[in-house]
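Glutamine--fructose-6-phosphate aminotransferase [isomerizing]: structure, please.
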Amino acid sequence: MCGIVGYVGPREVVPVIIEGLRRLEYRGYDSAGIAVGCAGQPLELRRAPGKLRNLEEVIREHPIFPDAKHGCGGTWGVGHTRWATHGRPTEENAHPHRDCTGRIVVVHNGIVENYLDLKRELQAEGHVFVTETDTEIIAHLIEEEIKSAADSGKTMLLEEGVRRSVARLTGAFAISVISADEPDKIVAARNGPPAVIGLGEGEYFVASDVPGILHHTRDLHFLGDGELAVITRDGVHLTDFEGDQLPLKIQRILWDPIQAEKGGYKHFMLKEIFEQPRAVRDTTLGRISLNTGTVFLSEMKISDEEFRDAPRIDIAACGTSWHAALAGKYMIERLARIPVEVDYASEFRYRDPIIDSRSIGMLITQSGETADTLAAQREMLAKGLKTIAICNVVGAMVAREAHGTIYTHAGPEIGVASTKAFSSQLTALFLFALYLAQTRNTITGDESIALVEALTRLPGKIEEVLRTADLACEKLARVYSTARDFLYLGRGIHYPIALEGALKLKEISYIHAEGYPAGEMKHGPNALIDGTLPVVVLATKDGANHGSRLRYEKTLSNIQEVTARSGKVIAIATEGDEQIGDLVDQVIYIPQAPELLLPLLDVVPLQLLAYHIAVRRGCDVDQPRNLAKSVTVE
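Here you go.
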């Protein structure tokens, strides 16, 4: 996930772009760069690793078009703030990227999955690459298209070069392109990641997200997949990738700046719940092959032999991340056939765990700076383990000290109660489980392909749950917002999701809630059930999995235990399950999916239920009392 800002107009370009990038820095902050054009001159580029302030310092030391007013001129340009996917976060790999001539410049958000094949083809044509990124090949593709036309005695405009180039890209991308040969023009194209065009008075903008340009204009066109925009001082010309003209659909945005950052949602938490399809997609992008089912985890300094020889995986985490770890245990043991031990990070070092130094340690943390998790990591390192971090923040301490990192690419999570970070952690754990299974040869190629295909379909299924469950949960909140207690039940991999659902409700609504293994009801919790107790039961099933069907049947028995004692049952069930509707008070359906991926669908209604109950109770959803986003002290 990266931030893009572009501008064409009468103002000084650099301040406009820098301010826009500052408002989008939440989208990436491991490097930043800017490219500015002035008619009759080469494009000027400035780039820097690290946060945006480093780029500003570079510009101060090396002004762009220094003869212009106020030390920085130009009439059009693009800027970028990066969250690294391909290539280290260095100045060399920072965007914008140039072609061989230096006259075409590209900024890019997304991943080009076939970049290696394209790179080899372009190298055979004489192109020389200077970065580790997939983005650089886009600039070279455009150069090659325009050059081929010129060799045939034809003149090709920049937009046609872009159109022909994006037709050859596989993956997800939002790009903005400028050329020194075509002043006051930006060509933007989208296939996946968001992009928005802003229309001002005699000036025009492009950005990855609304906050980057809303302080300049409120008239916006949200670029759709397969759309290409040519932005000049004369206006915006919109076509599809085939070149057919499309109408602009201008929306007048009335949000204030804070609302814009929330994307129009009432709370950050709700926005982040609805960002989960993108978070899952971004965590997956560039890490799988649909052709072979292979998982690629590039940032691993642990050999295949060490993974094969490891007798156990030891995971430590806190809070929501601990629930993800518990679900990950089921994934890893099921696919890779290796024992997994899951600890609260806050307890790990105090119990003096018995550890084989050949084991692999894993730490799961959104911030990468959680004090207990860092302490657990150092205990693992002291006992001779190599460690892997699952983390959402590039360059965080846990990642710096690990032997391998799986960045979740969920983007900044503002709400204290974690939602999209949890889903992206589950995704990362599933990828790791599949990677380990392939390394240890405990899964066939056909099985891998089927699971990878199912994973790629998951974001669409999460979107489906969001469409149907939001209103259903809002209605349930009207009924149950005055409840004093809740019970959440699940079996197998769904038990950790029951724990997570209970935690979400506790965190933001201040209602007491417990998550329990459904099979343990007879061992105490049945005593709590009366006519006022809502019981949320995860009763989904994977029809192709015998174990899942057995779990489902046992869960139905637990539901009957609750209803026999007058408890109120809210069930999360799989589409097509007509049987369960007769047994419970309310049911929310989710799409079918393989057993190990169902938790990513299970959890969405639980998050929405907690959110709507908290709103009805008048609670501070984004900043619940006594809690902080990152726990950096014990």
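Notes: The mean pLDDT is 89.
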